[in-house]
Write a structure and sequence with these properties.
With about 110 residues, the protein is mostly helical. Helix content is about 60%, strand content about 5%. Helix 2 runs antiparallel to helix 3. About 5% of the residues are buried.
């Protein structure tokens, strides 16, 4: 809540001591949201949702790029199997000459 790092909390008596870190209570308190104000929880949830949305958009863009590349490669393969030269295929599809040369055609 306060954003002050706590290394440990000790309860000391004349006979012994109790360390919150040793018994795992410090980790539980760090993970707890009991005393975190509601507005901070809402803000954190919104930030996580925005990050997830951004990730999904990026994944969708990547998928679309891969599909488009596959379509273009398929067209280039068909043109190559029809006997068209490498340079015209590269010019029409936007692929590099090296990419067109890598395409294998079954005869």
């Amino acid at each position: 809540i306060v954003k002050t790092p706590v290394i440990d909390h000790l309860i000391i008596s004349t006979r012994s001591y109790l360390s919150f870190d040793t018994i795992g209570l410090l980790d539980k308190l760090k993970d707890s949201t009991k005393y975190v104000p509601t507005y901070q929880l809402i803000q954190k949830i919104r930030e996580e949702a925005a990050a997830m949305t951004k990730q999904k958009v990026e994944e969708a863009k990547e998928t679309a790029k891969k599909r488009e590349k596959a379509k273009i490669t398929k067209i280039a393969k068909e043109l190559k199997s029809a006997g068209m030269g490498i340079e015209p295929i590269a010019k029409l599809t936007g692929l590099s000459i090296e990419d067109v040369e890598k395409i294998r055609v079954r005869k």
